[in-house]
Amino acid sequence: MTMPKDGNDGRSMPQSGDGPPVVLATHGLTKRFGATLAVDNLDLTVRRGDVFGFLGPNGAGKTTTIRMIVGLIYPTSGYAEVLDHQVPRDKLHALRHIGGFVEVPAFYGNMSARRNLRLMGSLNGHIEEKDVDEVLDTVGLRERADSKVGDYSHGMKQRLGIANALINKPELVILDEPTSGLDPQGMKDVRELVRALGQSGTTVFLSSHLLHEVEQVCNRAVIINKGRVVVEGPVSELHPAHSSVKLLTSDQEKARATVAALVGAQQVTDDEEYLIVEAGDGTVREMVKQLVAQGIGVDAVIPAREQGLEDYFLGLTQSADVDADRDEAAAKGGVR
Amino acid sequence: MKLLRKEFTKLVSQRRSYVGWGGLLAVPLLMTLAMYLNRNSPHHDNGPGGLITLATHNGLLMPVAAIMILSGFLLPLLASMVGSYQLAGEAETGTLKTWLMHSISRGGVLVSKWGVAVIYVVIGLALVAAGALAAGALAFGLHAHLLTGQTVSTAQGLWLSLLSYLYVLVGVICVLSLALALATFTNSSLTAAIAALVIFIVMNILGAFSYFDFLKPYLFTSHTDAWQNLFSRPIVWHPIITGLIAFAIYIAGLLTVAWYQFRRKDILV
């Protein structure tokens, strides 16, 4: 796979505070469908070079937000801003800088992939045949480029969606659940592609309900639920630092006293014959050293449960799930 | 212009386009064949009389005879189909959202879709005319027109045929605009096409009852046959002009509705 070159050099971008320029921001973005608030006063900031994870359970308002950013639906209040262009007011300028897809990428089934890319690509400016070849290579579809898209598998359409997102070398690539419905190899390919895009300097806005996916490819993320931001920040900070180990020694009681002296008594609990020690990074080494120094034989130190984003996310959103389901049903009823 | 060209690319890549065009071309050919095989029958039962009967003596009148038959149902049907498919059909397949995610205005999209539907009908009418003229010339030869006792030259006859086609085209654009306007309210092209056709037929039925005579001037369907006045001598222009004005008002009104509805429509599919 080859990566598209970064074609963003030398363009002016608005500055907002410290750090790289802001490529995408939403300001009080709100969408109401009938009685349901699908997106509620959403403020996001995505900076240049970010691979930004947009996380939330199904029905959280992710797709509605993306549709507002690309001007497919009109906000009830608030607006999005892409570079210095407001959406919806200055939609046509903003859309020049955006590539991507919403939900399942859709193409003209009776045309080849190549023709689809030519047709779509030339809507946003001039493209050449080598641009088409380049994106087809990027997503590994070059060999099937002249087959009708109607004959494509789901995974191929998904990849064509990414190719189409890149065809105009946009500054902002928006991908709505790009790995949904893909097999493991396909997921891996797409994630590598997204990571590589980020490394090449393209700003990526990736919506997903898969937390490990965001952990793997994103540097920043926001978690939304019921149309509201639950938490926002660098992925490394979203990730809690604490982890725990299971400890098995020749003398558990003596070991408990030793470990408690090191990390505090409340950090040590029991699990069957094991001791569970809540220990931050670096503490484990010190703990083992002290145990051995006191003549306690260490039989096993097992990393127990690393509390990942997954659990964190579930904890944040679970209580709201019942409500979210009800709201989703109401939204569907309200839209029709 | 660029958008219109792209819409045309999409149009010609669809199989359904050719089905419609094929049907339009088949009618004058089959009609001529039937009339040719039946030419020596003493009853001359060639359906509606007048121009159609005249066509059996003169191939030059065949395009006009063909349009007479087609303007009642097949043309409005295809116009509804192509008018509704441009928007609602693309909403169905999801390509409308892919299309609209580009730096193109909603107004431009709407106008280009309307424009390509018009082009579709124009091509269809051209096929009818060419097919009818070729078949008519082959079967009955081309002679000077014979109109209610008067003879007009071949050139003038062709000119009158062209004018009647243009009139029919404007009438069909009414149906097409209706279908396009309805397509902005639904995401199902079939719903929009059927709704447009139902409205067309209901208008026709209303126009057929004298009780509803007071409505007649306001129904565009009352004006669809006014082009036949081109073939009377002297030409009665008044109903033709009235018809064109009615069509223009309908088209402008329907496009305004379509624009108003599509301009800020939430694309949810």
Task: Write structural notes for this entry.
The complex is a heterodimer of chains A (336) and B (269). With 336 residues, chain A is an alpha/beta fold. Helix content of chain A is 36%, strand content 27%. Chain A has eleven helices and 14 strands. Chain A has a six-stranded mixed beta sheet with strand order 6-7-8-3-9-10, with helices on both faces. A four-stranded antiparallel beta sheet of chain A has the order 2-1-4-5. Chain A has a four-stranded antiparallel beta sheet with strand order 12-13-11-14, with helices on one face. In chain A, strand 1 (22-33) and strand 2 (36-47) form a beta hairpin. The longest helix of chain A is centred in the last third of the chain and has 27 residues, at 309-335. The model of chain A is unreliable at 1-16 and 320-336 (pLDDT under 50). With 269 residues, chain B is mostly helical. Chain B is built from ten helices and two strands. Chain B has helices at 2-12, 15-37, 51-55, 62-70, 74-93, 95-100, 106-140, 154-183, 189-208, 238-263; strands at 145-147, 150-152. In chain B, helix 7 (106-140) runs antiparallel to helix 8 (154-183). The longest helix of chain B is centred in the middle third of the chain and has 35 residues, at 106-140. The relative contact order of chain B is 0.14. Chain A binds chain B through residues 67, 70-74, 92-93, 95-96, 98, 100-111, 115, 119-120, 122-125, 164, 335, and chain B through 2, 6, 9-10, 13-15, 93-95, 97-105, 264, 266-268.
